[in-house]
Amino acid sequence: MTAIQELIKEIKNLKPIPAVINQILEIVDQPNSSMAQIANIIQYDPAVTASVLRTCNSAFFGLKNPAESIKDAVSLLGIDQIIEIVLMKSGAKVLSGKQQGYGLHEGAMWKYSVSSALIAKQIAIKLSLKNKSTIFTAALLKDIGKTVLDRFVMDSFEKISALVVNENLSFREAEKKIIGVDHTELGGMIAKMWKFSPKMVKIIRHHHLTDVSMVKDKEIAVVYLADCICMMIGIGVGSDGLAYRFNDQAMKELGIKADDISKIIAQFALNMQEVEDLLNVV
Amino acid sequence: MKQIVGVADMKVSNDLKDSVVTYSLGSCIGLVIYDPFVKAGGILHYMLPDSSIDKTKAKINPYMFADTAIPRLFKQAYAFGAKKPRMDVYIAGGAEILDQKGFFNIGKQNYMALKKMFFKNNVLINKQNVGGNVNRTIRLEIATGDIYIKTSGSVEEKV
Prior knowledge:
The complex is a heterodimer.
Chain A: H1 3-12, H2 19-28, H3 35-43, H4 46-56, H5 70-77, H6 79-95, H7 108-126, H8 132-141, H9 144-155, H10 157-167, H11 171-179, H12 183-193, H13 198-205, H14 218-233, H15 249-254, H16 258-281
Helix pairs in contact in A: 1-12, 2-3, 4-6, 5-6, 6-7, 6-8, 7-8, 7-14, 7-16, 8-13, 8-14, 9-12, 10-11, 12-13
Chain B: E1 2-5, E2 9-13, E3 19-25, E4 29-35, E5 40-46, H1 55-60, H2 66-79, E6 88-93, H3 106-120, E7 127-130, E8 136-141, E9 147-151, E10 157-158
Parallel strand pairs in B: 1-3, 6-7
Antiparallel strand pairs in B: 2-5, 3-8, 4-5, 4-6, 8-9, 9-10
C-alpha cells in the first residue's frame, strides 16, 4: 500500500464530526437566521445540549442563575457565544490529542486551533465580514489534516527537515515532496468526507495559500493571516517551527497594515488568560 | 522550583532552588539577565517592539512591549542587588516566517528594538540565538547561571 492509500484509509477511520456542526453552519451565517432556529438545532441533540449547558454553567462564565435550557443559555450569554461553545466542543473531540510528529504535546494543537479561531474571528469582526462562524470554524479545524499525517511526518521527519534546512522548502512543501501529500490536502479531503460546505473545504484546503490566487478570497486570507499571527506568537509551533510561507498580499487584500497586526497581537495577549481558562472548561 | 514565564510576562528570582523557563518563543524575544555575584536573574518574554501602538494595553501589561518591559526586568534584578556591569545577558527568539520582510517582520523588529535600547544604555549581549524559522524554549538556573536552549526539532543544549 502506498502512503497515500494508507492515509486515505486512516481518514476513513477518523471519528465523525458531530452532525450539529454542519446544521449550524448551514444557517448561522445567513442574514435571516433567527436565534430560535439555532437554539432548536442544538436542543435537538441531547448530548451536545448537556455538555453546552455544563460549560455555560462553569465558573468561567460566572452566571448568577444557572442556565437550564439552551434558550436560557442563549439569552444569558448571547447566541454567538453559544455557537462558539458548540463548535469548540465538536472540534475538541478531534483535535485534543498530541501530535508527536509535529512535536506538539497533548493540548498544544487544541490551544493552537482555538487561538487561530479567536484571532480569525477578531479580524473578521474588524473587517465587518459576513460568514464569521464559517471563518471561526475553518480556522478551528484547518489543521485537522495534521492529526492524520502526524505519524507519517514522524517516520520521515529527518528527510522533511533536511529539505526545509537545505533546500529552503516550507514544511508543507517538504511534506508534499516526501510523503506525497501535505496536511492541507488531507484536511480538504477530511472536510469533504465530513460533508462540510464547499466554502469550508476550500478554506481548509488553501489555508497556507498553496495556490496564491486564493488570496483574493477574503475568508481564506483571514484564516491564513490568523495562522501566521499564531506562529509569530509561538502558539502551535512545534518541530515544524515557523517554516511556512508568508505572503503580504493577504494583508493588502484585506487592507490590514503592519500596525494592525501588532494591535491584534496585543489584544490577543490581553485575552490569553481568558483563552487558557476557556480551554479548561470546553 | 520551576518558575514559568508566560507570553508577555517576566520572572526574576534569587532563590537558588529556582529554574526560570519560558516556552515557545516564535517572533517574541526571550531576554535572560543574570548577575553571578549575587546569584540573581530572570527572564522576560515580550511580544512586540513598541508600546506606542497601544499605550492603554501597555499600562495593563507592560511586559508585552520591548520598551516598557526591558527597563522593568533590569529594575527588578537591581532590587535583588544585581549590578549592570556584572550581568550576563542572553537573548533568544525573534524568529520569522519564511519570506517575511520589512515592516511585517515582527521578529526582526523585536530584535532591533532591544539592540537600540541596549546601545543607548551600554548593555552588552554575551550570547544570542535569534532569527531563522525555529521556535525556542529557554531556561535559566538561578544557582549556577547556566542557560539552556531548546529549538524546534532538536534536544535541549547548554548555552
